[in-house]
Structures are given as structure tokens and as C-alpha cells.
Amino acid sequence: MNLPMDTETAVEVADLSVMAADSAGARRPIVDGVSFTIARGEVAALIGESGSGKTTIALSLMGFARTGCRIAATRLRVGRTDVLALKRRELAAFRGRNVCYIAQSAAAAFNPARRILPQVIEGTAIHRLMSRAAAEAKAIALFHALALPDPEGIGARFPHQVSGGQLQRLLAAMALITEPELLILDEPTTALDVTTQIEVLRAFKRVVRERGVTALYVSHDLAVVAQIADRIAVLRDGRMQEAAQTSHLIAAPEHPYTASLLAAAAPTPRAAPAAAEAPVPLLDIRGLVAGYGAVRSSGLPTVPVLHNVDLSIRQGSAFGVVGESGCGKSTLARVIAGLLPPARGSIRLEGESLAGRAAARTREQLRRIQIVFQMPDVALNPARTVARIIGRPLVFYHGLSGAALRRRTAELLELVHLPTSLAARYPGELSGGQKQRVNLARALAAEPSLVLCDEVTSALDTVIGAQILDLLAELRERLGLSYLFISHDLATVRALCDEVMVLYAGRRVESGRRDTLLRRPVHPYTELLLSSVPELRPGWLEMVPPVPAARGIAAGMGGRGCPFFPRCPHGIPDLCAREPPPLRMLAKGAEIACHRSEEDLLALQSQKSATAAMPPPASVSTCRELQCP
Amino acid sequence: MRNRVILRLIGARIGANLLLLLAISLLVFLGTELLPGNVAEIVLGQGATPAAVAALSAAMHLNQPAPLRYLLWLGGLVSGHLGHSLVNGDSVASLIASRLPNSLLLAGLTALVSVPVALALGITAAVWRGTLYDRIVNVLTVASVSVPEFLVATLAVLVFAVRLHWLPALAYLGAADSLGGLFRVFALPVMTLSFAIVAQMARMTRAALVNTLESSYVEMAVLKGARPARVVLRHALPNAIGPIANAIALSLSFLLGGIIIVETIFDYPGLARLMVDAVSTRDMPLIQACAMLFCAFYLLLVLIADIAAILSNPRLRFR
After folding, report:
1. In this structure, is residue B33 part of a structural domain?
2. Is the Cβ of A102 closer than 8 Å to some Cβ of chain B?
3. ipTM value
């Protein structure tokens, strides 16, 4: 079972296939004849859309196949171990010792019933590597190396008591504690906000480089992979399309599929139709306060989410709302749709005041605002056919029936570029992209003026998401629709919207036209958000100025001061913590909420970019040389 | 802070259960009111004169309006005065005290036998889900849930007592003076009771555990190299305590229904037998006290399961 030591290649995979048996018992390959090697100390990446087999390949390196799958290969070697020759007991001794795994969702990978530290060091106990005290000391050293706050104390907490970005780094500590020959990172930053992603990526990269870890990085995001991988392999439908050095693959992709992935990673702005200037905005919101829980005597809900939000959507425009998770984006859509009555503030649709609850709105008002939800899988009733799903609003709002109903359903399917034969199918038989199109068709069936798009591309692969963006742009032009487009992803907002609002902790921090706002951000938070979006060039990660350490939650929370103050690099200690930031009209036409003046902020920005452009410290390469034989 | 949250949650559960018990007392009272026949007539027999019946009715407060009688009874319940049997004049408390230990012994022995067996079956079936073993356990548990216990009891008596003469058909407590005797007395009743609740518990345990076994953190534990025993005991089970405790509580409360049939069939001198006898003699105070006791026992089981679920959840213990 022990193979002769090859000092150069740490991992060797030849002709790997994984067969899955479906419910009917038929076998089909989900990975088909994949071969690659990883050199010792190298970080290799597998890139592909969901269903491309990248996670399956990574797991097969641990001799692990999900229920119903079987692994076959002419060679599957990690270090000295022939993985396929391992018996059940040997497999258990191999996993977590020779190969360790960092899963996509740390929140799900940590056992909620147990404290963090025992879980992090469990591998050393399973494989009897060191004493408990030694393992705990080592874990704490790793917590330091991964830049976790309170390294001594964090292990005593339960998983639900730390943030997602911290959990992901704790998962890395759990994987590194046994010093494995191979580290597998499976989409480790996909579930995180961009600003958190950057911190986690930076911590991962430093640890991997300093310790000379051999790693396999699995992701769908080329820009992220470009920061950390030495080599990239592109997968599609379980087959290897192309493999090359990172810089080479990004500069000169050979395979057309790679080129399409590259194109989808940096979406181009879709042309916006010229909007007719109407005297009254389509949707006008003033002083909106909303949240969850009972409304207190102060007029605020128990858990306030949105604070004094103003926005105005012009006829025919696409209005983008961006912000991190928890900033209140979805709450805003729910309030506009009438699903959540606001505590305070007014909503007007073409000058006409809208009731807070959907039940109190007229049918005509309901018809004019439609919502498309984030998760196409759960937004469609699995027990209804596509025709019934789309037909429901046609019957409800337009009273169609019989042949007219069928004709209109077919028209709507064509409008979203779906074959009319799909009408008889159930949602379970459709792909993610098709489901989102059905979702869109259902919204369009009402013939709305405003469509609320809540993260409509987030659950989709980049290429499929780009197609949905194209469709949205096309529909807007053909039907004169207006959108409220909510996303955490600046690139998609940039691609579709002509006006953008940035939300932070339920407050509007900056808003304005797309080009002025996204090309030259002024508010420190907008700047942070924009600079955190990974770029496709290798070395970008080193160029981004580090996010300042939080000033402590107490400094900005709870009080009336600026909510961004604890993370703001340009905060004015006394003023920002105490006083709510005033709204400022900028020369470029945007609005920001900040205590500093525009000239101040621009001057501070240029100072900072000057210091960040300095070359990174040289210690990285020396560390690596010391550790690699 | 966190302890106050837990205490408030548990306090709320206890309060809700007390309210529920009050509502149940009303239902029990109304239920016994609906039983046909005048108690005084039944007590005095067919030859009673109307005057004697009227006198006895007055003595028993039977002439007073129902709401007043309810309040009198409730006051008695709360202060511990359960009243006296209408039939033989003994205090209800002493009648129950003489029978309750027997029923608790039967229920306790059944729990002692059935819970470990059910957990073992449920856990192994969950771990080896999809295998032949799992399917066999599945078929057997479905089959035994579907057979009513009076049939199981009758068949057991037919086979083990009548045909094989291994075990006595009736449960005489006097014979339970040695360990062997105890076994002979309780074998059939315990077996009958266990039959249905083992199946139920095993199925619910399997379902709860399968849920956690398919979670990401269990997959993670496998990928850390943990062996199956460690995966189940350290990672999956702690997260399934809540649902499993509920499954056990629900199944054990099912014992209450089963105990009535089993005690009757095996003529076992327990609380359920006492209640059945009380119903046939219209002994209202006794029926009411027994019914309340059964309901309180049921609520207590569910309350314990609720508290176990609250305490096993670190999200509640540590905010």
C-alpha cells in the first residue's frame, strides 16, 4: 500500500472516474477520466460550475464518495498512499491525518452542540498525534496565525457565537492541526461577504505559503482562485477542459469554455434604454423605518432593520441596492411588496400612497409591483406545473381562461426564452436557470411596472447568472420595465443598474448614478466594498490595503452615531460615534452620509492608495524556501 | 443572563402545563358528568326507596349545581383532599396509594426493557440505513406498531401460557418474591407493552438520527477520520437528543393507554384496573382522581422531554 516516495509530486491522479447510480439504477459518470498532479508545496485549483464534478474529485482524494457513488482510477495517490487500496479502517486513519478538508459552509461543518476547541483538536485525538495540552497550544498558535480575534478564548465558544468569517478560519485551523500532506479547500469563501472574504483569503494565503502546504482549491470563482493558486484546471461536466499556470490561463485561455468563464467573471454593463423623463417618479420612498418584532412605544420595532431610508425610482430605470448580508436589502423589498408593513415612512407609486400591508392595497396596485425571489428552488410550488404557476397571475389579474390563457402562457415562456413545451413540466424537472426564468415569467404575467429582483442571480452559476442578467436587460428594453435590483455583488449591479444605493446597517450611506458612484466612490464604506471585489489579476490580494481592525462594537453601535464608524478608516473619534452623519450632496451628483467633506475624503483616499502600492514584505518567499525540501 | 433565558423558557413551559392541567380538570369533570345514571341509585341498589336516594344525593352534594361541585372538587384536588370512594367509603388517596406503586413498577420495568432496546434498534438502523438490516427492522417495527396490544396480549397468553405452560396467564403479585418469580409475573405484561412502544420509539429515533447523520458536520467528522462509533456518539447523538427525548416521552405516554388494556387482560392490580372498576361502579371521585393522575403523568413526561430539548440546545444555553 505504501508506494515509493516521490519527492516532487504530492498528488497524482490518473484517469479518475466517479460513477453515480440514479434512482432507476442506471450508472452515469459525474467525473470522467480526469488526470492531474500537484507538486509538493503547490496550490492547485479546480474551477467549474456547480455540477462540474469539482467537489466530487476533491472528496475522492480522501477516498470519500457520497452515497451511491463509486470511485475508479488507474492511479489515485496522495503522498505515499494509494487511496483506492485502503481498507475501511485504513481510510479512517488516512482521512484527517494525510488529507484534510475545509468545507464550503463552516457554519454547517461545525457541530452546533459542541464547543469549538474540542472540535478543532479532535483530529489529533483520533489519530493519537499529541497530548491534549499540546494540541490546544498548537490550535491557539494557529488561531494567532489565522489572525483570529481573542485566540486564547475563542475556542471555548460555541459555533453560533462567532461570525461566519471567523468560523471559516477556525475550520482552516481544524484542517491544519494534523499537518496533512494535502489540504483541500472547497469553496471556502463563497458563502462570505466580499469584505469578509478578503480577510479570510488573506489569512489562508499567508498560512498556506508560510507552512508550505500542498493544497487543492476548489471554486467557481476565477478571480478568487487567481489570488491563491499556482495552477488552475478547468472542469465542465466532469471532464477536464484545460489546465495551465494561473497567469497563463487568465492571460491566454485556450479553451472556449475558459474564455466564457472569464467573460462571465467580469460582466460588462448592459446598455440602458433612454428613459423618458416623467414628472413623477415611479416609486418614491421617504423616511422609511421598518423592522421585525412588536412596535415599541417609541414607534420603533423591537429589531429595527431599516432607518430613515429615502429612495426614488424613475420610470423605466434599474435601481440597484447593494450591501453586505444583514444590511436590510431584502427587508426593503419585502416592505415595498407589502409583505412587511413599515413602522414609519411613506411609499408612493406614481404619486399614489401605498398601504403598508399587501392586503390593504388595491388589486391594481398589487399587480403593478411584482417580486422575484432569490432561491428559484423554493420560490416555485413543486406540486404545480409551470403552466399553472404562470397561469395563476393571468387568471387573478387579467381573468384569462381557456385558449387565451394557454396562448398568453406560451407567449410568456417565449418572452423568457423557454420552450413552450416546458409548460407541462414540474419545477423539479427544471435546471436552476430555467426555474429562475419561470419565476420571472410568473412576475411578468401580471404586467407589472416595477419588478423587485431580490438576489436573483446569487443562487446561480456565473455563466447562467450572466444569461439572466442579459434577459433582464432585454425585457427592460422591450417592456419598459423598472427594476429594484438587490444584490450583494457589485459586479452584477454594475452590469444592469443605472442608479445605485449603498446600504450599511439599514442606512443609506451613498447613492447616485452608476458611473459616478462605482467609478469614483466617495464614502469610505463604498470604497471598502468596491476595493474588496476580487479582480482577475494575480497579485491583486497583496495590493488591497488591509481592512482596519474594528474599533470595538461599543464605539458605534446602539448610539446615534455613524454605524460604519467601528470599521471606518477615516472616522473622527468623538464626532462620528456621537452624531448621526449629515447628508452631503457631492459635486458629481451623488449623495453620501458622512461627517467628512468630499474634499477630505478624496484626499484621504489618494493618501491611502499611495501607501498600499508599496511592494509586499519579502518574508513570504523566504518562509517557503525554508520549509520546502 | 443566559441562565435567566433558560429559566424563563422552562418556567413558561411549566406554567403552560399547569394551565393545561386546569383545562383538563374541567374536561375530566364534564366527562364524568356525562356518564349515565345517578350515583346514589347505583350505590343503594335497585331496591332503594326514593327518599333514601334523595337523602344520599343531598349528602353527596349531588343536588348542587355542577359549577359549584366542580369548584368544590377542584379545591379538594389542590389541597390534597381527593374525597372518598362512593362505593366503599375508603379515602381515594389511600386506594390510589395502594395501586400506584404496582402501576409504576409495571411502567418502570417496561421502560427499562423497551428504551434501551428501542434506542439500540433505532441507532443501528440509522447508521446502517439502506441496508438489509435497516429494511428488516423497518418491516418488523411497522408490523408490530400495526398490531393492537389486546391482540398481542391474547396471542402471548395463548402461546406462552396455554400452549407452552411457560408463564402464568395472570399476574399475581404475590408470586413475585424472587427474581425468577418477578420475571415470571412480569414477562407477559412487559412484553406486551414493550411490543408497541419499542417499535414507535425505534422508528422515531431512527428518523431523528438520520436527519443529523446527513448533516455537513457529520460528513466533516468522517473526513476528519472519525470511526463510526465516534461519529454517532460524539457528533450525531448530541444533536438528536431533543427529538429522541420527545420520541421516548411520547412512546412512554402511550404506555398509559396500553396499561389499561394490559392490566385488565392480566388482571394486574394497578391503577388502570382500579379506574376501570371505578367506571363500572360509577365511583366518580375515584374516576376523576385516576383520570387526573394519568393526564398529569402524561404532561410530566412531555414536560421532561421539553426541558431535555431546551437544555441540550447550546443556542439556548449560551446566547
Report:
1. no
2. no
3. 0.73
